[in-house]
Amino acid sequence: MPPFQRFVDDHGPAVHGFLVASVGQHDADDCWQETFISALRAYPTLQHDGNLRGWVLTIAHRKAIDSHRSRQRRPVPSETVPEIPVEVPDPLQGEPALWKLVDGLPPKQQAAVQHRFVEDLGYGDIAKLLSCSEAAARRSVHEGVKKLRETWA
Amino acid sequence: MTSVNADLLERLAQRAEAEGLLDVAYAEVDSPIGHLLVASTPKGVVRLSFPSEDEADVLDELATRLSPRILEAPAKLDAVRRELDEYFEGHLKNFKAKLDWTLTGQGFRHEILKHTAKIPYGGTSTYMEMATKAGNRKAYRAAGNALGSNPIPVIVPCHRVLATGGGLGGYGGGLEVKERLLHLEGAL
After folding, report:
1. Is B141 known to be catalytic?
2. Which of A40, A147, B129, B141 minimizes the number of CB atoms within 10 Å of its CB?
3. Is the CB of residue A109 less than 8 Å from the CB of residue A140?
4. Tell me: the pLDDT tens digits for A19-43?
């Protein structure tokens, strides 16, 4: 295995980008830490086929799901309601409203769309990450994009 | 695409250490003889490399021989980095940093380096003298080889070992570095 620091340098930014898109800037840093600590734990004995990027994205994907679940369990309390809506700057500098729509997609379509357009992964890699066939991955992306087109007007 | 900031990397190294997952920590050190890389394990300093060595090769070697759980963690190496700074300024005569001898192997080579570590600041010795101390007077050539592959130069002062006839001998970091270190220590 190459030195872990090189693995972090090679894949850290892409994993962070993926996490910002799937859990938001606020939770992305924590998920990133969890992802790389898990990776480090398994690292020395890892049997890999050369696709380390795919492996670490799979871990990140799971951490993102954990984060979504724990966020649902603990709603954030607030004593006061801000009178002015606060616009959080989006690190992707795309359309924040569009990413909100992506968040609203069914989980599999959401993940597929992110892997395709944030990570720029091919359908074969997406299929591996989602444990489905390549055709199903293609369908999830297609359905997701179709839904986005319908709601984004 | 967003990039990973230094704070995030530092937290990763801290967390890795807290969970016992950091087998090798390394940092870069700027010195008058150029950019050095210093690496340590929980036991102590295990490797110091010269500017003449390729950093990626050095890290690959550590990953293969020690563990691939390697992270850049400058905070972990603060003490030895400060000692190196003081040494190059001429203020420090004896390194106090603990050493990890894993990379020196066993037997004769290990003996040679252990005895080399005892040569005092400002002093010099010879390959033959080191070979004699390690138990084989005739093996001065092997002594030279052992010193040439010293994994922790500067701190284990192989630059203080000279040729028997009075010449400088050889040096892994280049002869001009050897000469410079001996000048710094007032041995030349």
Report:
1. no
2. B141
3. yes
4. 999 999 889 999 999 999 999 999 9
